[in-house]
Write a structure and sequence with these properties.
Largest sheet of chain B: none
Chains: A mainly alpha (546), B mainly alpha (182), C alpha+beta (271)
Shape of chain B: elongated
Distance between the termini of chain A: 21 Å
Mean pLDDT of chain B: 87
CATH class of chain B: Mainly Alpha
Oligomer: heterotrimer
Helix content of chain B: over 70%
Number of domains of chain B: 1
Shape of chain A: globular
Mean pLDDT of chain A: 94
Low-confidence stretches of chain B: none
Strand content of chain B: under 5%
Radius of gyration of chain A: 23 Å
Largest interface: A-C, 110 and 102 residues
Number of strands of chain A: 6
Chain lengths: 546, 182, 271
């Protein structure tokens, strides 16, 4: 075995490897790098909201076209929140949870030698890597990166004169997304084929860890939902460059000049986008839900309560996720009947979520608990899932949504439920599977400290946003204090920003722990957590000798 | 063919099953893509300014699609020389379809109103996306039917037919929606 | 190869319980002093719905976290560990569904009521207003005596002539149209207002927090909605849909005056 590995060159072993474990780690490391970018963008956004006249001396030297003598330009602010959302949702969370953990764990958890199509797998990673480069390159175009929001609503995203980022930046955004979707589609094919067709003989679906189930559902969601965005992106590209008017209505006047063409519908984009957009947030959520259930199993030593219901709950949530997209469009002027229909489906999708919460409590009740770092993260996911799920119920009611749509309330909601649960899932998974990746354990003390600080600062950052939203603070505003009624929110916004800074600093603990433990962590045995699932029956990666 | 022979040929029931799953999944994704495009088309048709252009001549593209389906049937139902001819026929049909579809697209793009006319835009878009998938599908069919020592497996034959007929049926649907609903 | 795994939940649970208690206390304070801007229109149903949800969410949030803390603090009892129990699962699933359906039904009732003509309208005809959003300003016009909005045409938009909405001055119906100064809308208290909302360029959103009113201004269509202002005063109008670099400063002012003074106020504003 080792003779074989030595005969492979460095490139084929570490760079263009077909081994699902190497590919999984490639996804994870790339996602971690993108997370640093996405996190920095968030900090810039937060600093600007809290102190609108702040002078960004260092950053303005690095990206001069975004600033005017150190003061951030409003169109650059728009680019920042656009890129933060796009990078975090796709290039960080989807990549880490599905590309990273999915690739590493699925073959191991189903008892297969590798993914069904290893070459396709490597190709998927490299296409994702290229798409990451494309999205980063868009920062350095003359008119700046895309600035129409991660949601890219036309006509703002379709008309080049509507905002600076709607020039080359928007095209690069579309290209990066197209490449990302290709990567994700190829990956989804691989995952489905492996889980459904390459399981070890005798291993039933109902024996699988809930993480594997979550990968199955996430893959199905991705395959069926991403094409909608692909269709929309193609139409947007044609509108931008070929004179078509899929999304551009007639009779527009931009900066006093009439816009040629027309007859299209901006609402069409919203329908197509959210048809992907909503399943996408479940694609990101499901892995954390699976991980939480599995960690409860391992660290209580008893199978999670109601395993079968958990599978059905995930399945129901996945299916329903295709039927709720209109709740992002309640105030768009769509027909009240349609609004009611989506309110009904949105309410229904909350039911299985409730089931999961109850089952989780039952999974902890009277059981011996081992509070390792991964378990702490799983408990954190439980808390965020409850809080974020509850605020979602508010927004799913059409009359309440009138007041809260497009306010900071929504920002708080999705950061807690989606970003939070997903992020905590990444931390849980990294800590838990670290012995598998590197043959060592991460430091428990540092891990617990990182968890506690992150948990506290996460709530401190995102919970007050609900209050700001109730007060009427709209989102995506470069300077909220242009409005007198929002001036009293300045201290709260400053508090949120300080909490965000503290949250960012706390992540240093994670990076230190990660890289230090890779080399010097306590050596792990074959199954250090005494876990029942198949991935632990393989010998952990040989710890590098010093 | 014996399992032993299959194993020597590098195939296993599991990997064949995996390919089947992957193909069905890919066709599902393609279906959703066209469902999205067609939904957009159907909604747009209902707007007051919709003006379909006369002429059914682009429907001639169906000839190439049926030719491809015929070729794949020939290639997968018989052994030996007719199979090779079938595969060449498939490549030819796809190539002609590609050329024909591009001609149609160029024609609507430069015709009256060009792509500003929503009907033309949808013709270009739907055909263009279908062409791209035909190229992928055709390449896949040729690849999966490549000669092994033992010849392609039963599963490979089924999949090659599935992909080709799917693309033909898709084109039928597209042509009907574009030119048959007027 | 084993290592020391922290086993006991006690210390963690106590820390968590303390944090939760502080958090809840602070939330109650913050929500009490910091929640919705004072209501200034006939849409109090939204406020009631929010209060209802606050109570329900509060109970669930507290309940779930108390249960979590208790679970962490409990000594393990092998004999009493719950395993699969379909009856119990049906029970709590039904409970969840019932609460959610109740909220949904309430939401449907509220939505229908809010969309219908205002009860406060009385016998006076509604005030018709056309709002036209653009990058980055709000345009308002009233139809005047004839109650008909004059024709507009995008080709007639002339910013130099201050014809922001492209009013066709040759249209007889346009002669008595009252174009208010950009960004200023004057409304009478106690009369139903019917808004026709349009956009000239990209998607904007008409949002006045004290009125509990929000609607997207979608280019290419005119949407309509209705409300009745009930309190006099000045209320800021915000754009609630990212519309470009000036989104943050797309501010308007809605001035609500007593019914009797409205006509005079409009005249004064358009001088």
């Amino acid at each position: 075995m080792s003779a074989n590995r030595e005969s492979q060159g460095f490139l084929s072993r570490y760079v263009f490897s077909l081994d699902h474990r190497v590919i999984g780690l490639q996804y994870l490391m790339t996602a971690m790098g993108m997370a640093l970018v996405g996190g920095l963008l968030a900090l810039l956004v937060r600093i600007q909201i809290a102190w609108p006249s702040h002078e960004f001396r260092a950053v303005s030297r690095f990206l001069p076209q975004g600033f005017d003598e150190g003061i951030m330009k409003p169109e650059f602010y728009a680019a920042l929140f656009t890129m933060h959302g796009t990078i975090m949702i796709f290039f960080v969370l989807s990549a880490a949870l599905i590309g990273g953990f999915g690739n590493y764990l699925i073959p191991l958890q189903v008892g297969a030698k590798d993914m069904a199509f290893p070459r396709l797998n490597a190709l998927s990673y490299w296409i994702y890597a290229i798409s990451s480069v494309v999205i980063l390159v868009s920062f350095f175009t003359p008119s700046g990166p895309a600035a129409s929001g991660w949601t890219a609503y036309p006509p703002l995203s379709a008309l080049k004169g509507a905002i600076a980022g709607s020039n080359l930046g928007q095209d690069l955004w579309l290209l990066a997304m197209a490449l990302f979707i290709v990567s994700f589609t190829l990956g989804g094919l691989n995952f489905l084929a492996t889980i459904l067709a390459m399981r070890r003989p005798g291993l039933l679906m109902m024996d699988l860890p809930l993480f594997t189930w979550s990968m199955l559902f996430a893959s199905i969601l991705g395959l069926l939902a991403f094409p909608s965005l692909t269709a929309a992106a193609m139409m947007l590209l044609l509108d931008r460059h070929a004179g078509t008017s899929f999304f551009i209505p007639a009779g527009l006047v931009l900066s006093g000049e009439t816009v040629p063409g027309g007859g299209g519908s901006p609402i069409l984009w919203q329908h197509l986008f959210w048809f992907l957009g909503h399943p996408e947030v479940y694609i990101i959520m499901l892995p954390s839900l699976g991980i939480t259930s599995d960690l409860f199993t391992v660290f209580t030593g008893r199978r999670v309560f109601g395993y079968t219901s958990m599978v059905y709950a995930m399945g129901f949530i996945s299916g329903m996720s295709f039927l709720v997209w209109g709740h992002h469009m309640f105030v768009s002027g769509m027909s009240p009947f349609l609004g009611s229909a989506f309110a009904v489906t949105t309410t229904l999708i909350a039911v299985p979520s409730g089931v999961k919460v109850f089952n989780w409590i039952a999974s902890l009740w009277n059981r011996p608990l081992r509070l390792t770092t991964p378990m702490l993260w799983a408990l954190g996911i439980f808390s965020l899932f409850v809080t974020g799920g509850l605020s979602g119920i508010w927004l799913g009611q059409t009359q309440i949504d009138i007041q809260l749509h497009d306010t900071a309330f929504v920002v708080g909601h999705f950061h807690i439920i989606m970003a939070g649960a997903a992020l905590f899932g990444v931390f849980a998974g990294v800590h838990y599977w670290f012995p598998l990746f590197f043959g060592r354990l991460m430091n428990e003390r540092l891990g617990a400290a990182h968890f506690l600080l992150t948990f506290v600062f996460y709530y401190a950052t995102f919970f007050p946003m609900h209050l700001a939203g109730l007060r009427g603070q709209v989102r995506r505003v470069y300077d909220p204090y242009q409005y007198d009624y929002l001036k009293p929110l300045a201290p709260m916004n400053a508090f949120i920003t300080w909490a965000a800074v503290a949250l960012a600093i706390a992540q240093i603990l994670f990076f230190v722990n990660f890289f230090w433990s890779m080399r010097r962590g306590a050596k792990a045995g074959v199954n250090p957590w005494q876990a029942p699932s198949l991935e632990w029956s393989e010998p952990a990666a040989e710890a590098e000798s010093e | 063919m014996s399992a032993h022979a299959a194993a020597r040929a590098g195939r296993s029931p599991a990997s064949e099953s995996a390919t089947r799953v992957a193909v069905v999944a890919a066709l599902s994704a393609t279906t959703m893509l066209f469902a999205s495009l067609v939904s957009a088309y159907l909604v747009r048709r209902s707007f007051a300014d919709w003006r379909p252009l006369p002429g059914l001549w682009p429907a001639v593209l169906l000839v190439f699609a049926f030719a491809a389906s015929g070729a794949i049937e020939a290639a997968t139902r018989v052994e030996g020389r007719p199979r090779r001819l079938g595969l060449m026929g498939l490549a030819l049909a796809n190539g002609l379809y590609l050329a024909g579809a591009l001609a149609v697209i160029r024609s609507v793009a430069s015709g009256a109103g060009g792509l500003e006319m929503p009907f033309n835009a949808f013709v270009a878009l739907l055909l263009g996306v279908h062409v791209a998938h035909s190229v992928l599908g055709g390449a896949f069919a040729l690849w999966i039917l490549r000669s092994d020592a033992e010849g392609p497996s039963q599963s490979a034959l089924v999949l090659a037919r599935l992909v080709t007929h799917f693309l033909t049926a898709l084109l039928c649907a597209i042509v009907f929606l574009l030119f048959g609903l007027q | 190869m084993s290592f020391e795994v922290p086993k006991n939940g006690g210390a963690l649970a106590r820390v968590f319980a303390l944090l939760t208690a502080l958090f809840v206390a602070w939330s109650v304070y913050a929500l009490g002093t910091n929640s919705l801007p004072p209501l200034a229109a006939d849409r109090g149903r939204i406020d009631s719905a929010i209060s209802l949800n606050l109570v329900v969410s509060g109970i669930v949030f507290l309940g779930a976290h108390v249960a979590l803390v208790m679970a962490l603090l409990r000594r393990p009892k092998e004999a009493r560990i719950p395993h699969e129990n379909v009856r119990v699962e049906i029970l709590w699933t039904s409970l969840t569904a019932m609460v959610l359906v109740a909220l949904l039904v309430n939401s449907e009732i509220d939505s229908r009521a809010l969309a219908a003509a205002s009860a406060n309208a009385g016998t006076e005809p509604p005030v018709l207003v056309e709002v036209v959003a653009q990058q980055f300003a709000w345009n308002f016009r009233l139809p005047g005596e004839d109650g008909i909005f004059g024709r507009t045409d995008p080709k007639l938009v002339d910013q130099a002539e201050l014809n922001f909405i492209g009013l066709d001055k040759k249209d007889p119906a346009a002669e008595d149209d009252i174009i208010l100064p950009q960004g200023l809308l004057v409304l009478p208290a106690g009369r139903e207002v019917r808004v026709r909302l349009r956009s000239l360029d990209v998607i904007h959103s008409f949002f006045v927090a004290p009125f509990r009113v929000k609607r997207d201004a979608m280019p290419g269509i005119a949407t309509e909605f209705t409300f009745t202002p009930t309190v006099t005063g000045k209320f800021e109008l915000a754009c609630a849909e990212h519309c470009g670099l000036g989104h943050y400063r797309m501010r308007g002012m809605v001035e609500v005056v007593p019914k009797a003074d409205w006509a005079a106020k409009v005249k004064e504003a358009t001088q």
